[in-house]
Amino acid sequence: MISVVGIGPGNPDFLTIAALKRIKEADVLIGAKRHLEIFEDVQCEKVIFNSKTDLSKLVKRRGRIVILSSGDPGIYGILDAVLKCAGKKDVEVVPGISSVQYMLARLKIPAKNAAVLSMHGRQVDIVPVVKNHRVVAVFTDSSNTPQKIARTLLLNKIVDRIIHVGENLSYDSEKIKSYKLEQLASSEENFQLNLVVIEKCGNTDSESPTSFL
């Protein structure tokens, strides 16, 4: 059996009881180095997973295999890749608290009408998504930075938005700052691992459903 386990936004305080139970039962624990370090007291074989790892070989290991995923495995997590290698029959998914859920909660913004998209390693036309939703959460990367997102919106004459930037969410070093578009577009700040939430000024409930793009 392969368990794909969401471990939340990072701080172990947000790890679910179900996730911890599966992790403690593991014969083989697979995850990024920073994830495995959280569970150094768990006695089992540990395998570091990175971009060069052959996942198709790992899922064929014997015993109870647990694959760690940041946040929730199904929200731009590792679940897609695991299912392509192993299929659904022998895969169990243990959901976790995603960084999107966490940040929206910190901002006190209801998640029901938010759009969620990833620009992490992807080129996405963010403009129509922002135009059609009052709240948009965006996974970023070193190329698609908060500043680039702000400049893109301004170039497309979208000016009635605030951008919230959350860094190192759930950790002691967490920072969440809110910016006007012009302010962020010209910022030279070097943001650490971050999530962006774009909110329409004067935000109220919308009829738009939650969407993952």
UniProtKB/TrEMBL annotation:
<protein>
    <submittedName>
        <fullName>Cobalt-precorrin-7 C(5)-methyltransferase</fullName>
        <ecNumber>2.1.1.289</ecNumber>
    </submittedName>
</protein>
<comment type="pathway">
    <text>Cofactor biosynthesis; adenosylcobalamin biosynthesis.</text>
</comment>
<dbReference type="InterPro" id="IPR000878">
    <property type="entry name" value="4pyrrol_Mease"/>
</dbReference>
<dbReference type="GO" id="GO:0008276">
    <property type="term" value="F:protein methyltransferase activity"/>
</dbReference>
<dbReference type="InterPro" id="IPR050714">
    <property type="entry name" value="Cobalamin_biosynth_MTase"/>
</dbReference>
<dbReference type="GO" id="GO:0009236">
    <property type="term" value="P:cobalamin biosynthetic process"/>
</dbReference>
<dbReference type="Pfam" id="PF00590">
    <property type="entry name" value="TP_methylase"/>
</dbReference>
<dbReference type="InterPro" id="IPR014777">
    <property type="entry name" value="4pyrrole_Mease_sub1"/>
</dbReference>
<keyword id="KW-0808">Transferase</keyword>
<dbReference type="InterPro" id="IPR012818">
    <property type="entry name" value="CbiE"/>
</dbReference>
<keyword id="KW-0949">S-adenosyl-L-methionine</keyword>
<feature type="domain" description="Tetrapyrrole methylase">
    <location>
        <begin position="1"/>
        <end position="185"/>
    </location>
</feature>
<keyword id="KW-0489">Methyltransferase</keyword>
<dbReference type="InterPro" id="IPR014776">
    <property type="entry name" value="4pyrrole_Mease_sub2"/>
</dbReference>
<dbReference type="InterPro" id="IPR035996">
    <property type="entry name" value="4pyrrol_Methylase_sf"/>
</dbReference>
<dbReference type="GO" id="GO:0032259">
    <property type="term" value="P:methylation"/>
</dbReference>
<keyword id="KW-0169">Cobalamin biosynthesis</keyword>
